[in-house]
Amino acid sequence: MTASITVGLISTPGLPADINQDLMKELPGLLSKMIDPQVSWETEMTVDPLVGVAEDTKQVLEKTNNIKEENGWDYAISLTDLPFFFEKNVVVGNAILEQRVAQISIPSFGLLPMRKRIRRAMLKLMENLYEGTPSETDNHTTQTRTGRRKLKKKLKKPFALSPISKEEGYSNQTGADLRYVIKSRFIGYIRVLLGMTNANQPWKAFFSFYKVLAISFATGTYISIFSTPWQLSVLYSNYRMIFMMLLAIFGMVIWVIFSQNLWEKPTEQGKKRWRRLYNGTTFLTLLTIVGINYIVLFGMFSISTSLFVPPDLFQVSTGMDKDPMANYYFNLVWLITSLGTLAGAIGTGLEREEKIRDITYSFRQQQRYYELEQQEENDYTEKEEGAGN
Asked: Percentage of the chain with pLDDT > 70?
């Protein structure tokens, strides 16, 4: 009779849940092909915000094991949007072989192609967990070993730009006895920073800032009525235009950060490493949103300028003695976009503070801690009521 093994996938809400949803469909076939074809593999999934509630690998693994036991799974792997470290190295994944649980950190994979890397890492960790189970390792067939060789060959090149090293042995720091870490600390830090920014999904947050876009467009349109911006667009050099663009983009980012108190300040409880990561992620996330805002504004002004600014009017307003070419229109749109972006910073004051703070990691962590406290209070209340009865 074919043995059946259930692998539970646990994720925090948002991007990790989306990735796990896709992996659920692929994993059974891949596990059968790559690890053991004589086993009937099944996958189940649950979303739990408390999997990413602490900057502590040990707590995440303990929570993963508790969920595994509650659901009666054979194995469990948690996917979280929280980065983890072992000493000063970035950790891609941890595992406790005896408990058959593992944890994967999404930010450690950087940007694209992230999903493929996560799938390969999950297969590799499952191979380690499966091999670390004595009852399963005694009866490997030739076909299974062939599948393992294919898996190892396929997993040789997932991290070409930042080699991963496998480390074994129990660690009091993480509570794990197996981990994969990025060898280069510098590359690891950059990947985590980009990965956390990617996990924030700034392109989705952009659509929530429609008031900023509306004010930027309205201001830019009003400015374009006067002839001064037209004349300046002809006189300004490309270097000055680039400076104006950078001033507008970075000025708006800095304004939003400090006007909404998004910058994490030193505290007695907070660690410098996490504070730097949170602040760096907030900056890059906002920079991406403002950059998208700038590109959209540029497109909107390009359309409006081409429709409502005829060459004769441009020539008269700027005092040119020849017909304006396309580059003059481009510079006009470029300048108006920069000025409109600067003015659009005012629009951030009209957005709800929670909406803006929601793009930061620290805010999501606070929300998760609040949920954890609520859960503990509910559990305590239920115990008290049970004791009273």
From this structure: 77
The three-point CA angle 299-251-275 to 5° equals 115
Name residue, tokens 């099944």: 42
Domain 3-184 - what CATH class?
alpha beta
Position 219, amino acid: T
Both tokens of 201, joined, read 């999904």
Q: What is the DSSP letter of 265?
A: P
Residue ranges, CATH 3.40.390, the chain: 3-184
Q: Contact at 8 Å (CB) between 113 and 18?
A: no
Q: Does residue 80 contact residue 92 with C-beta atoms inside 8 Å?
A: no
| Contact in structure between 185 and 86 (CB atoms under 8 Å) | no
pTM: 0.78
Residues 268 and 322: their CA atoms lie apart, in Å, by: 66
Confidence of residue 354 (pLDDT cuts 50, 70, 90): low
Distance of CA 189 to the CA centre of its chain: 14
- Burial degree of 58 (CB within 10 A; 0-12, 13-18, 19+): middle
